[in-house]
């Protein structure tokens, strides 16, 4: 009786307060009275409730005194009253955050996650695909490659073909060639390997790049016999020469020869180190210097050695299609190499391999944003139901609907601002961290940065959802009634369940592609590349130029190095190759004797692999037919070769004993190397173009018959040889102190770098999928919690009439699973529709793999059961007596 009288007194006094004071007190009254009722019941008596009511009465009286002795609010300007109202609403919202931190944290965290995902992926997408490049009129820059009529991709260019394009393609304003260059730089610490680019004099003019200091090359520098000159990168100038201001005009020794420095180039992603099929390196360590290509008489006529990349600038009045038409029509009389040219836009050259993964990531981030928006809607509805009693109290104290709607909108705006700011901050951290975890081969043409457009878009999307969803409770303010116990289920519960189903559907539609990408990556990691990867170390070695290292000396160096290292402890195998087995940069036209190809353009263009005897044994490559190379087969012996399965299949299957000619070898190396080779063995395919690509036809020649002044040393370490990488350089120095030795790398690390794009795509998509499914299950949990809280009296009645707790719990679980199943089915249907977009990203996995779909659906269903377990357990534990008295 006393408690009821005190409660009546509190509200009677409160109703006499001015409107602004009554609205201010509504939040405190509701929260406090609810808390005192709970505490009183927990204590088993009413004294606690009485003490709380007395304290509230004192607070009401204090506000009455303030209202009577303070300023006259009614006479203040409308702007001042609006400002005061907003300030009070902000304070009320902050108090709500303190009293229900979990609900506020859920809204802020959800919005922050969505904003961070969208802004981060959009920042990467902008940096790679859309941000302007630092070259004038970049839209007119194109790469030009040679191409055949078959399905193979474009490949590197011969010097003769480039010379034809330089003279005969009118669509090009300027055209330039470039190729790889590796030397040893003489320094105080001995010979240091450095890598750069050979270019024609028109290279920098075609790109529109000016030097920081000095000049670029001109036609005099590429004339045969001209003085050797070099351009240094800014990084090499600073790192190797300490940024010496007098570097221009000084001589540096590259490969034992003096080169005069004529300029310093800025830090730009200029093309360098072309490789097959039609790739251009972007790593800064491959662009330490530039030297001119000597225009010898052979340069203009050679059509066999595909070693160059070509970049061109279109004329202002021409298009790439016109240039392609000219390239296709240009032929050479009696040309042995019947390939034609094809252009590729400058940006497309760099980003074509990463465009699809980036677009997938951006689509995944948008899916997370959609799930987050649906989750925000559900959370806001839930928060409204939790505040129903507070809002009803404010209305009873005299607060109008406009005033209450303003309170809801201010609360939603504050949550949106907090979530948006947190999301932008997280994305700034991510954009600074992601490039540090990726190899330099990932083409960030410009550094990724926070994109204001993406931040504004994601922030406004979250703000629109949280504010718009607050309009729904505002429309229901007319029907508000206080609920002394818990919250009540929204009248349109189907809308709430629909939001949950949408979240689950998007989560499933994102989880299935993430699982497929993960399976594809796992398949690539376990797919046999055809050779041993684990424990194999790779190091580039060189003994100088052709003039300084005749073929006899080169052969002796190779033999001494392999013999010395194979005798060292901890070495299980050693061999030399022109390229390591995960790279192939040498293609050659091979004409099989006695064979006339149906299409001359398909005449035996194969990958040429130069390896030392013992290569196949050291790397575990199986010899399927015939034999391997032998040490006795040197330059004075008849030429022998091995081919892979793909080559044998392309030539009828049985190729042992057949012969082919290689006139390019004789042209380049003279009579010291054989011009005709007999096939003595067939080996298993190596996936030297990448484990995600099919094996290509390849021919293997022996280094004993085809010595290389620069080669790659491959050392297979024993299990207990952890110190072998540190000993390799010393072993090579013991054979030739003047040898140039590159960085020691592991073949497994190189393979991992080749898969980095797929790994990042799979990893980030998986994170987004987990976030989306997690948010969906959180929304499902919130739905069931609201349902259980709103049905407390109904559950109590059922229990009082004899229903078992298990039956109550089962009813809640079935309702939860029903909403989840609708979303799962919709998500599977959406996955089937979108599956075609993933086909080109998957290897050995179907985009509609039923087992993957079943596993994802089962996992989400299990998560839905767990999400329903908590609310179901609370419903089963309701005390019927307490539930009936609460009403």
What is the overall silhouette? elongated
Would you tell me the overall average pLDDT?
Answer: 75
Find the count of extended strands (DSSP E, 2+ residues). 25
Strand content: 15-25%
Spans of 5+ residues with little confidence (pLDDT < 50)? 482-491, 544-549, 598-602
Radius of gyration: 37 Å
Terminal Cα separation, in Å? 18 Å
Percent of residues in helices comes to 40-55%
Sheet with the most strands? 10 strands, mixed
What's the tally of helices?
25
Content-based structural category: alpha+beta
Structural summary, described in words:
51% of the residues lie in helices and 16% in strands. The protein is an alpha+beta fold and 887 residues long. Strands 1, 2, 3, 4, 5, 6, 7, 10, 11 and 12 form a ten-stranded mixed sheet that branches. Strands 15, 16, 17, 18, 19, 20, 21 and 22 form an eight-stranded mixed sheet that branches. Helix 2 runs antiparallel to helix 3 (47-69), helix 4 packs across helix 5 (101-130) and helix 21 (756-790) packs parallel to helix 24 (850-876). The longest helix has 41 residues, at 346-386. It is elongated and about 115 Å long.
Give the gist of this structure.
Helices cover 51% and strands 16% of the residues. With 887 residues, the chain is an alpha+beta fold.
SSE blueprint and pairings:
Elements: H1 2-15, H2 19-43, H3 47-69, H4 78-99, H5 101-130, E1 141-147, H6 159-168, E2 172-187, E3 190-199, H7 203-207, E4 213-214, E5 229-233, H8 234-241, E6 251-254, E7 257-265, E8 272-275, E9 279-281, E10 289-292, E11 309-314, H9 320-329, E12 340-345, H10 346-386, H11 388-396, H12 401-433, H13 452-475, H14 493-526, E13 536-542, H15 551-566, E14 571-577, E15 587-589, E16 591-592, E17 605-611, H16 615-618, E18 623-626, E19 639-644, H17 645-650, E20 659-661, H18 663-669, E21 676-683, E22 698-702, E23 710-717, H19 724-735, E24 740-741, E25 745-746, H20 747-754, H21 756-790, H22 792-800, H23 805-834, H24 850-876, H25 880-885
Parallel strand pairs: 3-10, 5-7, 17-22, 19-21
Antiparallel strand pairs: 1-11, 1-12, 2-3, 2-11, 4-7, 5-10, 6-7, 8-9, 13-23, 13-24, 13-25, 14-23, 15-17, 16-20, 18-21, 19-22, 20-21
Helix pairs in contact: 1-3, 2-3, 2-4, 2-11, 4-5, 4-12, 5-10, 5-12, 5-13, 10-13, 10-14, 10-21, 12-13, 14-21, 14-23, 14-24, 15-19, 21-23, 21-24, 23-24
């Amino acid at each position: 009786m006393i408690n009821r009288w005190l409660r009546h007194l509190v509200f009677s006094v409160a109703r006499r307060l001015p409107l602004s004071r009554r609205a201010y007190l509504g939040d405190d009254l509701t929260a406090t009275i609810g808390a005192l009722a709970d505490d009183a019941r927990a204590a088993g008596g009413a004294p606690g409730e009485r003490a709380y009511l007395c304290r509230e009465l004192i607070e009401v009286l204090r506000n009455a005194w303030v209202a009577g002795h303070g300023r006259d609010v009614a006479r203040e300007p409308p702007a001042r009253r609006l400002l005061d109202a907003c300030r009070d609403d902000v304070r009320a919202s902050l108090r709500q955050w303190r009293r229900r931190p979990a609900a506020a944290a859920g809204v802020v965290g959800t919005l922050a996650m969505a904003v961070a995902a969208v802004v981060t992926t959009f920042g990467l997408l902008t940096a790679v695909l859309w941000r302007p490049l630092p070259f004038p009129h970049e839209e007119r820059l194109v790469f030009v490659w040679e191409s055949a009529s078959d399905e193979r991709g474009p490949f590197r260019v011969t010097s003769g073909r480039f010379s034809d394009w330089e003279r005969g393609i009118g669509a090009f304003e300027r055209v330039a060639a470039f190729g790889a260059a590796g030397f040893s730089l003489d320094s105080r610490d001995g010979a240091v390997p450095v890598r750069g680019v050979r270019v024609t004099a028109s290279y920098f003019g075609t790109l529109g790049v000016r030097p920081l200091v000095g000049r670029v090359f001109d036609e005099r520098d590429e004339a045969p016999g001209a003085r050797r000159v070099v351009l240094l990168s800014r990084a090499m100038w600073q790192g190797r020469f300490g940024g010496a201001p007098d570097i221009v005009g000084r001589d540096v020794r590259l490969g034992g020869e003096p080169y005069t420095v004529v300029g310093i180039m800025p830090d730009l992603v200029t093309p360098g180190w072309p490789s097959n099929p039609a790739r251009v390196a972007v790593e800064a360590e491959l662009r330490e210097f530039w030297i001119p290509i000597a225009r010898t008489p052979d340069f203009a006529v050679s059509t066999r050695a595909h070693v160059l990349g070509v970049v061109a600038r279109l004329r202002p009045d021409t298009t790439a299609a016109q240039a392609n038409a000219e390239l296709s029509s240009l032929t050479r009389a009696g040309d042995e190499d019947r390939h034609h040219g094809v252009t590729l836009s400058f940006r497309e050259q760099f980003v074509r391999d990463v465009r699809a993964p980036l677009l997938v990531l951006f689509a995944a981030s948008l899916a997370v944003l959609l799930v987050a928006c649906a989750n925000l809607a559900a959370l806001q509805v839930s928060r409204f139901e939790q505040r129903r009693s507070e809002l009803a109290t404010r209305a009873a104290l005299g607060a109008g609907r406009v005033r209450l709607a303003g309170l809801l909108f201010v609360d939603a705006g504050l949550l949106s601002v907090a979530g948006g700011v947190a999301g932008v901050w997280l994305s700034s951290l991510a954009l600074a961290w992601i490039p540090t975890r990726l190899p330099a081969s990932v083409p960030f043409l410009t550094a990724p940065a926070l994109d204001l457009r993406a931040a504004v878009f994601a922030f406004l999307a979250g703000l629109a959802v949280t504010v718009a969803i607050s309009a729904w409770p505002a429309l229901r303010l007319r029907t508000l009634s206080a609920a002394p116990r818990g919250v009540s289920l929204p009248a349109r519960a189907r809308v709430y369940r629909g939001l949950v189903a949408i979240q689950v559907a998007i989560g499933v539609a994102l989880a299935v592609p993430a699982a497929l990408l993960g399976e594809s990556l796992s398949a690539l990691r376990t797919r046999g590349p055809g050779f041993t990867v684990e424990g194999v170390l790779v190091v580039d070695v060189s003994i100088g130029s052709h003039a300084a290292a005749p073929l006899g000396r080169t052969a002796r160096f190779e033999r001494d190095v392999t013999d010395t290292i194979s005798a060292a402890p901890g070495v299980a195998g050693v061999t030399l190759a022109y390229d390591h087995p995960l790279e192939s940069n040498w293609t050659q036209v091979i004409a099989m004797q006695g064979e006339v190809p149906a299409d001359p353009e398909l005449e035996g263009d194969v990958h040429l692999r130069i390896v030392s005897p013992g290569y196949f044994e050291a790397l575990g490559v199986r010899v399927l037919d015939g034999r391997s190379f032998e040490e006795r087969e040197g330059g004075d012996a008849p030429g022998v070769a091995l081919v892979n399965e793909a080559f044998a299949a392309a030539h009828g299957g049985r190729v042992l004993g057949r012969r082919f000619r290689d006139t390019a070898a004789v042209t380049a190396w003279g009579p010291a190397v054989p011009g005709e080779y007999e096939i003595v063995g067939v080996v298993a395919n190596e996936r030297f173009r990448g484990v995600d690509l099919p094996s290509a036809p390849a021919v293997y020649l022996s280094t004993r018959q085809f010595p290389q002044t620069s080669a790659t040393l491959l050392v297979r370490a024993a299990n207990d040889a952890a110190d072998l990488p540190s000993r390799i350089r010393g072993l090579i120095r013991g054979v030739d102190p003047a040898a140039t030795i590159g960085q020691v790398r592991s073949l497994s690390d190189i393979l991992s770098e080749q898969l980095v794009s797929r790994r990042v795509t799979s990893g980030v998509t998986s994170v987004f999928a987990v976030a989306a499914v997690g948010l969906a299950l959180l929304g499902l949990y919130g739905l069931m919690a609201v349902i259980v809280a709103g049905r407390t009296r109904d559950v109590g009645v059922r229990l009082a009439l004899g229903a078992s707790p298990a039956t109550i719990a089962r009813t809640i679980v079935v309702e939860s699973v029903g909403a989840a199943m609708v979303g799962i089915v919709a998500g599977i249907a959406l996955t089937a529709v979108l599956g075609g977009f993933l086909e080109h990203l998957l290897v050995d996995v179907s985009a509609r793999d039923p087992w993957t779909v079943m596993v994802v659906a089962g996992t989400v269903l299990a998560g839905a059961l767990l999400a329903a377990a908590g609310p179901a357990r609370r419903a089963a534990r309701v005390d019927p007596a307490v539930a009936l008295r609460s009403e």
